[in-house]
Design a protein that fits this description.
This protein has 10 helices and 12 strands. The chain has 278 residues and is of the alpha/beta class. A 10-stranded mixed sheet has the order 5-2-1-6-7-12-11-8-9-10, sandwiched between helices. A two-stranded antiparallel sheet has the order 3-4.
């Protein structure tokens, strides 16, 4: 990996700025290529390209869209004034989370960094935060955070996983951080009993070998579920970044049962790195 190519979706809020500040901190030790993306959330009947501009089916006034884009262009230009000419800015139209996921995959980004306000109660059950939805659907790994962590040093990385069947996973970002910050990687599995604990510890050795992880510490914790286990572990041993895999879920399945990854993205005031499990 020559450069870490990072996409920061922005709605020009302080949460997007939090994402940039964390990425800027990483850039002090990791060579990065930083891109901001603003998505104009519009119906599928609206399209845009740089040559023809907006095209609609008449359901939305074209002049209104053009006026909105002029405001967005000024805000995107201002990001370069604030953060430097080295950053790149992009504009697309579409459904927000789909557009972010598609843009990241098409342009081969290594990471999506997103600030999030989180989501609670009925909103979480029926829609969730944008970061939660991107983590669910994107094939690109996602780094989500809820507050300013610009001083984070990534000294202790917590990798939460089921180590029963260890295999190679999409965690090159974790290896990159460890090398840059000389980090310790804490492997954690939430278990239900002592037998499961013994199997997890054995699987961690194989997992670390397959995925070329060094400076590893192994942990298990008996708890009722992954979300509570991670929260309780961090109360006992503070870590800088939580890394956890997700299988992704359909919208219907999500209504029935949120994944642990999505709950943690919403609820913890810790940066969360989520990746698709192979």
């Amino acid at each position: 990996m020559e450069k870490l190519k990072i996409l920061i979706p922005t709605d020009f809020s302080e949460q997007a700025e939090f994402a940039f500040l964390l990425v800027k901190n990483m850039a002090a030790k990791v060579e990065t290529d930083i891109h901001f993306l603003h998505v104009m959330d519009v119906p599928d009947t609206v399209t845009f390209d740089d040559v023809n501009g907006f095209e609609t089916c008449g359901d939305i006034d074209q002049k209104t869209l053009e006026a909105r884009k002029q405001i967005i262009d000024r805000k995107l230009a201002n990001l370069k004034t604030l953060y430097g000419e080295h950053i790149h800015t992009h504009f697309v139209v579409g459904k927000l989370t789909d557009a972010i996921s598609r843009f990241a995959e098409t342009n081969q980004f290594h990471l999506i960094a997103m600030g999030t306000k989180g989501a609670w109660g009925l909103k979480e059950r029926f829609s969730g935060s944008e970061a939660q939805q991107v983590a669910r659907h994107a094939s690109t790994p996602v780094l989500a955070l809820k507050c300013d962590r610009s001083d984070l040093q990534f000294k202790h990385l917590l990798l939460v996983h089921n180590f029963a069947k260890p295999q190679e996973e999409n965690i090159s970002f974790i290896r990159l951080l460890q090398k840059a910050f000389n980090s310790t990687i804490h492997l954690l599995q939430i278990v239900q009993n002592e037998t499961e604990k013994e199997n997890a510890l054995a699987g961690m050795d194989t997992f670390a070998h397959i995925n070329m992880l060094h400076e590893v510490e192994k942990h298990t914790l008996i708890d009722k579920d992954v979300e509570n286990g991670v929260i309780h572990f961090n109360q006992m041993q503070d870590t800088d970044l939580i890394c956890i895999g997700t299988h992704g879920r359909s919208a219907f399945a999500h209504l029935m049962r949120s994944s642990a990854t999505e709950k943690l993205v919403n609820h913890l005031f810790k940066p969360i790195f989520s990746f698709k499990i192979n």
